[in-house]
Amino acid sequence: MNNFFQAVKLTDDVYWVGAIDWNIRDFHGYTTPRGSTYNAYLIMADKVTLIDTVKAPFKDEMLSRISSVCDPGKIDYIVSNHAEMDHSGCLPEVIAAVDPERVFASAVGANVLREHFAFDREIIGLKDGEELSLGNRSLSFMETRMLHWPDSMFTYLKEEQLLFSQDAFGMHLATQERFDDEVAAAILEYEAATYFANILLPYAALATKLIDRLQRVGIRPKIVAPDHGPIWRSSVDRIVSLYGRWAEQKPRLKAVVAYGTMWHSTEAMARAIGEGLSAGGIQVKVMDTGVHHRSAVVYELLEAGALVVGSSTLNNNLLPHVADCLTYLKGLKPKNLVGAAFGSYGWSGESVGQIEETLRDMKVELVGEQVKAKHVPTVEIIARCRRLGETMAAEVKKRAV
Ligand code: FEO
């Protein structure tokens, strides 16, 4: 095996041996304009251990980076923290190439890996809290079920105070820089928040419990090594604190008006609602779902207190890109929102009722009066839209932290 690709040292004994995916732009519906990385880590302990692998097409890049440190055949253990295929896709081939002594995953992970791959060898299921000696180093494992798959777990390298956190604390950012202090803080926080909103939001309550648990059991990592994006070594406290804040989903003085328009009537209504929100002292993002990707809408919603959705009626339905965005938002289960629906129509006008139904399903508290416009909004209707924005602003202020 060549070593055209180099490992990057995290500590004396731990190396990043992952792969950079410069060109990925879609992650099951989450747009990734900056690409991503699949992080794998090599621990050069008495028992040489590989933490996670990479997406299948990047196997050779990972093996090449491992070869820059040691012969991959010297790997004794492989630990799979997360079975999703961006981290396990090449596991069968790596096991075949390396022939490790033992392969570990969480108890659930062992089953999930067996369900993905027809393994002809044992995957050892680890218990929550179990420890594993690597000779001169030791690992402990913590189940993190539903963050964000049932199999997910953390691995902690005690001697280095290094937490391998799989998807948690990660981000989709392809970069040659491996550490947080090498990347602009604004990019890190934007991409970390976007990742949280698009991947972890449905399980936010579990993130709060997990952070509490880390503190309770005395895990205070100096380094957090996620499965995507830069490794946290300089701002560990900052990212953990941001996770705590995002997970709480406490509404702030912010609102998102998401809409789709055919001939600018619904757009005019959206702009008037936005103006009313702004006049009421609320930061507002007015987003045409035909222009802004659903991932960008959910990023803006992460700390918002209101979601106002509008659509023209097309063939007795929502505009397709509004329906797309709403379906995505519904799945991500944002909490603590007030909301309202609006829209224009030509003759049937079902869109507003359909939006309200979805918002109710999402447990968004509907406030203010529904506003509909036939063909083109009149001055009176635009005034009602503005009043709706002002009403919404007052409701957000009552609830915001
Ligand atoms: Fe990065 Fe859930 O896989």
Notes on the protein architecture:
The protein is α/β, with parallel strands linked by helices and 401 residues long. It contains 12 helices and 24 strands. It has helices spanning 59-67, 85-88, 91-98, 107-116, 185-200, 204-216, 236-248, 265-279, 294-301, 320-332, 351-361, 379-399, and strands at 8-9, 14-16, 19-21, 26-27, 30-31, 36-38, 41-43, 49-51, 77-80, 102-106, 124-126, 131-133, 138-143, 153-157, 162-164, 223-225, 254-260, 283-288, 306-311, 313-314, 317-318, 338-345, 365-366, 371-374. It has a 7-stranded mixed β-sheet, covered by helices on one side. Helix 5 (185-200) packs across helix 9 (294-301). The longest helix is centred in the C-terminal third of the chain and has 21 residues, at 379-399. The chain is elongated. MU-OXO-diiron binds at residues 82, 84, 86-87, 148-149, 167, 227-228. MU-OXO-diiron is lined by residues 82, 84, 86-87, 148-149, 167, 227-228.
The first-level CATH class name of the largest domain: Alpha Beta
Strand tally is 24
* Unreliable stretches covering 5 or more consecutive residues: none
Mean pLDDT across residues: 97
Q: Which sheet architecture does the biggest sheet show?
A: 7 strands, mixed
At the fold tier of CATH, the topology name of the largest domain is: Metallo-beta-lactamase, Chain A
Total helices: the number is 12
Helical content (DSSP H or I, runs of 4+): 25-40%
Shape descriptor: elongated
Q: What is the CATH superfamily label of the largest domain? A: Ribonuclease Z/Hydroxyacylglutathione hydrolase-like
Beta-strand portion reads: 15-25%
Strand line-up of the largest beta sheet: 1-2-7-8-9-10-11
What ligands can be seen in this structure?
Answer: MU-OXO-diiron
Structural class: alpha/beta
Which architecture of the largest domain per CATH? 4-Layer Sandwich
| Rg computed from alpha carbons, rounded to a whole number of angstroms | 24 Å
Distance from N terminus to C terminus (CA atoms, Å) equals: 56 Å
**How many discrete structural domains?**
2
